[in-house]
Design a protein that fits this description.
The complex is a heterodimer. Chain A is an all-alpha fold. In chain A, 80% of the residues lie in helices and 0% in strands. Chain A has 14 helices and no strands. In chain A, helix 12 packs antiparallel against helix 13 (245-265). Chain A is globular and about 75 Å long. Chain B is mainly alpha-helical. Residues 1-6 of chain B have low confidence and may be disordered. Classes of the chains: A mainly alpha, B mainly alpha.
Chain lengths: 281, 302
Amino acid sequence: MRSRKTQRRIGDVLTYLVFAVALVFFGGPLLWVLSLSIRTPQEVYITSLRLIPESPTLENYVEVLISAQFSVFLLNSLKLSVAGSVGAVLVAAPAAYAFSRLDFRGNNTLLIGVLALQMISPLVVIIPLYRYFARLNLLDSHFSTAMVYIAILVPLATWMLKGFFDGIPPALDEAAMVDGCTRFGAFLRVTLPLILPGLTSVFVLTAILAWGEFIVPYILLSQPSLLPISIGILNFQGNYAETSTQVVAAGGVLAMLPAIATFVILQRFIVRALTSGAIKG
Amino acid sequence: MTTKKAFAPRELISENRPTLWMAPLLAVVTLFYLYPAFEVLRFSITNASLQAPDYEYTLNTFVSVLSDSVLYKVLRITAIFVVASVVLQLLLGLMIAVAVNRARARRLPGMVFMRSVILSAWVMPGVVIGIVWAIIFNEASYGLANLLLAPVGLGDVAWLSDPNLALMSIVIANVWRGTAFSMILQYAGLQSIPDELYEAAEVDGASALQSFWHITIPQLRPILMINIILITISTLNTFDMILPLTGGGPGQATEVLALHTYNVIFREYSLAGGAVLAVIMLAISLTLTLAYRRLLRSEEAL
């Protein structure tokens, strides 16, 4: 009995040891960048691990937001992510419902086909689309870029929403249909409201993925006023990195903040979406 | 809908058939996946350039890309990057998942905070991850990595400009990014293992290590396999993080397949050459998807 207890205690110590190492490895770089972002140029070059600078400043943030147009980039990212995730949910929801509720030939094969799409690199898709859009004069347009965002997010959204629909007993929408609803009416008024938490999960997760999307806007957009933050910050790093690490750090913090804040606030939804999508299928 | 009636029987568009429900999805898939995939295949057997509108059909591009030693160098770098990232993400993810799961069972505090910090790395845009690590791996003595190693007395390490170290550095950055996903999957997997198994083992006098090897690992096997495939694919497609970190350099030391494909098209303007590389990427994804499907099936059969 005693050895069990010591074993438990050793286990607890090991658990916290893993926590400590993981915290330093995962949290350390974030703290470091945060610390750099509030330093004056002189304090960047000190060779010490001190995190809080002697004279903290918000100067770098002002510079990034105003002279480097980060406010424009952030707004563009917001537009594209919301358009992409709303569009993806709108396209995916009816399809996911059909995969979950309707019995038809090829249901399973099609679903696997959708999964296969998710595995394709956006780079493969964007190569011919670039040429195609160039001819249609659709380069440098938020509209066409958002369409490609939707396309990239749709497989994941369909796959996850199907999992959420599967969790609602079909008897509920069938009952509504017996009461005179059409199937579409039952879908809108009964099933969709029931998977609202699932819809939120999918919306949040796809919006975060869209926020980080890189290849599509990198290839389709070139006008500075249209760029999302992921491209804006890359160009910015190219111009500034050598001379002012502290400003690049402030830009990095601004670019990661919306994604991290959304995630921390809605964490419950995201963890659920991730596990339901990947495991339950 | 009415125009369709002429050639589609009424029941095809009935709301109990999948046709209308699937129509938006199928439209998106056709326009943005099937058509591009077909075009990539078509361009791979041409000599198309990004600058000239005209091209001819030929197999020469395929032959020249496949016989170029650069491709094999790129594939080797990609393989090292993927294998190292996958192994480390899997092990670290499992270790943290076990710790988090244990903390939950024992009601130890700090679990949610822990999970939030690790997942923060995962939700960040890839480009920003590259920028964060470019700052950490700053090769001057005020860079964080060098500051941490200063007591060891190695001097300033060339994290990003030494070819071998650069490859290791992008692996570290990628492990930092991707471990959260493996952790979440493994954690969900751990929670699905029935407690009775452990209780029975305890009654039989098994040590914690023994239950880990004989219960946890076999029970997690299907999820571990799915995990491996999913992170292999996401690592293969990684491209954003590498650009701000090394740009594929020094030389081509960190030019992975996805980045190489981009460079061939948009730096060398060889649309056909890039299409051949894209076909290779497609073939790899397809193979991995088929493996994933087999796994999902065998899991359902259990």
